[in-house]
Fold these 2 entries.
Entry 1:
Amino acid sequence: MTDAYPLHPQTREFLDRPCRMLIGGKWTVSEQGQTMALLNPATATHLIDVPRGTPADIDHAVRQARRAFDDSSWSRMRPRERQNLLLKLADLLERDAEVLAELECLNNGKSAQMARAVDVQLCIDFFRYMAGWATKITGTTVNPSLPLMPDAQFHGYIAREPVGVVGAIVAWNFPLLLACWKIGPALATGCTVVLKPADETPLTALKLGELIQEAGYPDGVFNVVTGIGAEVGAALSAHPDIDKVTFTGSTPVGKLIGKAALDSMTRITLELGGKSPTIVLEDMDPMEAAVGAANAIFFNQGQVCCAGSRLYVQRRHFDRVMADICSIANGMKMGNGLDASVDMGPLISAKQQARVQGYIDMGRELGATIACGGTSSGPGYFVRPTLITDVDQKCPLVQEEIFGPVLVAQPFDDIEDAIRLANDSPFGLGASIWSNNLSQVHRMIPRIRAGSVWVNCHTALDPALPFGGYKMSGIGREMGEAALEYYTETKSVLIKV
Ligand code: NAD
């Protein structure tokens, strides 16, 4: 099916040569020479084979990352040079943006146009933003009191040092972007990285490896091991010589990783699942609210950790907003993400398609109303954008992360009701409030238990704004100055002068 869409010559060339992993600056097959097949989600046909790494490959990569961390060409590199390398890397991403976007589309199913405008552009912006921080990682001085030595003079200071070797494990929904959110602060602070991309979507991580080499990073600073989560992901997160694990994925796997990390006191950042509310107040224009709510859930086929997957609309506008969302959803063209006229691509896999369809069918069985959508189609892994109403707050469709283009909506009567419903979730990643009543909005913001609150927009991300979750949505933050804290250790120094 991809033959129907002309690919960039470099995308073609990437797909035509054998795929290798990057370990210690060398492109390598897996220790046992095993490979695994990737499918194109739009066609359910074979795309490419990639190495199926093993725990021995992880061990090799961690040793190479450790060696690179200790090596003076990286550990003693001046901040200005780390800044310039990140800027160079951003330029290379910009140069190859079309190729990266096409690879993301072929591997994940998402629209290539969107991948260029959103995924790849955010990576470029984020590397440039993080490049600026490389020269601004500073400490503070302290004038110590020490009562037992009243006559002595002291100089005290607090320094920030790179945490060391970072094991990064990411999900498949934004393969390049999730990796860059981890690699950016790691490279700015002087850490080294072993990246385990999602089983299904390693292609842009491997392309990024090529660009990191071309930018001139020392060998071993960045390594990629492809393979299965339970095999190489587990080996990476439990490796005793990793200083930090940074994970983006589901809450159940995040818990496993957190527990394994604690055994060796490995530092952790966990970016996990969500079930984010979109709250529409009655002063809002219903059509504007419907467009916002539809984008909040249907962007990236609903496979967004902070997707607005629960919709609460003040009762006066409920029916009107539902009707408008249905007309938007019914007008969405489904198809191959290489086709620029397509609004929605396939889900990542047959497994994900079955899971999402299973939730829709459960809604039907529980007596909910499928207001629009509700069906799957093939041969790719398509699910039509779906709106479900007449659901109870305790229903699994409202409480559990579906991770597909499925919106569940309920009316509310007053603001207290809206806040209670919004917070009635194990997750706390994002929330959006749609209203121009500023006083009301400002009263609501502090009461919403979520790491990001958007007003009159949703999933609006900026490199300077930290992103992460309350409650079961994770531990730690990515992006912004806050991210640096999670890639550095604090050292207190006291000198008797
Ligand atoms: P997942 O947890 O199944 O897999 C995520 C990664 O972990 C993959 O690389 C996988 O190979 C690896 N993995 C699987 N089992 C492992 C194990 N036992 N040990 C170590 N690694 C293992 O999640 P997914 O289905 O790929 O992604 C969807 C989830 O990711 C959703 O819950 C979504 O909300 C979440 N997500 C969160 C954010 C965020 O920033 N909070 C962003 C994107 C996605």
Entry 2:
Amino acid sequence: MSENFYVTTPIYYINGEPHLGHTYTTVLADTLARYHALAGERSFFLTGSDEHGEKALEVAAERQETPQQVADHYAKIFREVWDTLGIRYDRFIRTTDADHKAVVQSILQTVYDGGHIEFKEYEGLYCVGCERFLTDRDLEDGLCPDHERAPEKRSEANYFFKMGKQFAWLSEFIETNPDFIRPDRYRNEVLSMLKEESGLGGDLCISRPKTRLDWGIELPFDEGYVCYVWFDALINYLTGIGYPDDPDFPALWASAEHLIGKDILKPHAIFWPCMLRAIGLEPYRHLNVHGYWNVDSRKISKSLGNRISPLDMNEKYGFESFRYYLLRDMSFGIDSNFTEESLVTRINSDLANNLGNLVSRTLNMVKRFAEGNVPEPGPIGDLEREVMEVAGRLPEAVDREMRATRCHRALETIFGLVDAANRYLERREPWKVAKQEGGEESVRTTLYTCCEALRITAILLSPFLPLTAAEILERIGQSGELESAQLPQSAQWGGIQVGAATQKGDPLFPRIDLETIGESGA
Ligand code: MSP
């Protein structure tokens, strides 16, 4: 039986349009899902929208609409944006979907019946931005540091999930499964959060009285309350793959990989494993936590007006170039700084000068010296062997990085072959050899080697840059290749079809002039 790969993004709040931050996580999930499918696994990619909670009510008040209208409006926009950008999710889940509501209610009942919920009076500081109670330690100068606003003091009778009694188990689980939460820095952060929270008892308020908030899923055991938005939202990861009855559920769940930004570490690393245990399910396989994108060294915020739109980027640079930049420039787990200058520099150096150049030089020469067809190679020498060795190491090296969610390193590795092929061309100088007596065979070998390096590059690049990869394969006459490709076999040396007709085409990535980009703004 083939392996499974289940990847999720956070489900996004319906309080604005997708920006750079959402786009990053979504592109990352798309790339991983495509990679695992290419590796022959059954992959399932879930994304969606988080529609309940007070934030939705705030937006509804601003827009003078009902929360349902707001939810419909933004859920549609998110979907349309991902569709426009070629994001290939398997399901777009909305927390207002009927199946999700039913699953949340049945889970609430199970957890309640299991004795994990109690009813009591509570007073605390609530941040609507985070949609959760904060502790004094979370605050900076009395304000929520993420939302720069003071939390409200709230006191009311509510239902609490007794998650604190699971902290000992959870700490031990995290200690003994070192890559459960990765990279390491977040695992350590969670372990110290758990120590701190243990002292506070660790109860999680999971209800809101309808008198204050009636936009949510009703508690099955008390119609006066709705379910707290995070409790409802996390369960999307189960509903999305057909919990509890779908026959595929167990296998997919056992392979669950959550992708999140560091802002929502606590709900995913603490609430969620405790909830799963109370439900009677195993924890997810990995929590993969990425850092934050800043824009021109500042936090992304509505008020600063620096919420880079993926549609603008698509229009200005082409989505594949933007996608490449996001995946290549962020070291997984660490914050990154978005500037248009670094974006353009990255496109020019890697895509235009390096990859694009290899494609156009190779195909120009195939046209000039081999009638436009992939040539039959002659005997090979040390220089060919060097390129073959670099290519030979790629599938395993890329696989290792992808299984650790390090796309930036996987791309760096793949571009090692592009570099090697460009260097090889410089050393073989087929444009000179072609003029020498009897040089034809050497030229054919050189061009075959470059075409084959391009084929392997394109296959390995296809999860990252699906359109570019397809275009390269088409130009080197191997257009059907991606449909049946499977790693690692398809990336092994020697798979190119000799004699296939190639097409030169326009430059894949025209160089962008840095001077002109500032004018239109992002
Ligand atoms: N609705 C919750 C998630 C519930 S999941 C069960 C939520 N939504 S959100 O719309 O605020 O999206 C948060 C996610 O968007 C982050 O975890 C991250 O994936 C992405 N990003 C939002 N801003 C970001 C940056 N500036 N940089 C990188 N990613 C960030 O939280």
